[in-house]
Design brief:
The chain is α/β, with parallel strands linked by helices.
Amino acid sequence: MASSLDEALQRTNLSQSNQMEMLTFRLTDNQLYGINVFKIIEIIECPSRIDRMPNSHPAVKGALDFRGNALAVIDLSDAVGLATKNYRDELAYIIICEYNRALTAFIVHAPDTLLTRSWADIHKPEGVNARSLVAIAYNDSGEAIMLLDIESILSNVVGIDSDLSTAAMTDVEEKGNGRHVLVVDDSRTAIMLLQSVLDKMCFTNTAVMSADKALEYLEKNYTKVDLVISDIEMPGMDGFTFTRTLREHCNYKNLKVILHSSMSNPSNQQKAEQSGANKFVAKFDPDSLSEEIFSLIGLNR
C-alpha cells in the first residue's frame, strides 16, 4: 500500500513540476516512440488470434475482450504508415490505453523502458508536416523518441464525433456572439475538433499550438479573451504549468480557464483545480464542453 501511495504522490508531483513520465516502445521500424504513462491501463502479450471487425479501417485488426469489455485493436505501426506487425507469427505486445474516456488497444513491436522528462525538453518539430507526430524527446543515450498525436490517429482510424446533440444545440444560436475563446493545443486534430464546436456555439476563437504562444497572444490581447481552453500535454510547458503561470500574473489571474485533455483519469480533475483552472473537461465530449463553457462565462442554458 505504501509503495502504491508513494508512486501516486510521485506522479502527482511530476504534474506539478512541468514533467511527464513516459513509456517508450518500438514499432516495426525499430524507432523509439513514447506515450504518457497516465494513459496506460495495462500491457499484455498480443494473442495470436484477434476477432476481425468487418468494414473497419485497415489498421483495426479486430476486437479483444479485456475484463469483459470489447476493445478495438489498432496496429499502431499500420496506423502511422509503417509495415504491419505480424502478430500472428511473431511476439508482439498490446498497450491498453484510456483516451477520450474510452479504452483502446494498440499493437506495438515491443515496450522499452520508463523515462521521466521535463516538458521543456520535449520539442515540437519545426518544418515537418507529419500529421501523426506531435513532439520529439531523447533518451539517456541520445536516441530520439517520437511522441505520436494519438488524437489524430484515433480520428483517422475510428473517428471522433464533434457534433453537438440536438438538445445541446437548443438555444445555442447566437449565444456566443461577441465572446472570444483562446484555444491552446499542440494537436491540429484537437484544434480542428474544438473549433468545430465553438463555431456551432457562435464563438469567435484564436488557436495557438503551445503555451508560450498563448502567453505571447495574451500579452497583447488579454482584454479581448473571455475564456481559455487548454490541453494538458504540450511540449515546452504543460497545461498545469501554463494555468499556474496565468494565475501568477495580475492581468490573467481572473481569466476563465478550462483544461481539456484526453487524460480522462479522475485524478486530473484534482490536479486541474490545484493548478488554478476553473474546470477540467475530458476529451472529447462536445455536449459537456459546451455546457461548461456556457456556465463559466455566464450564459447558462
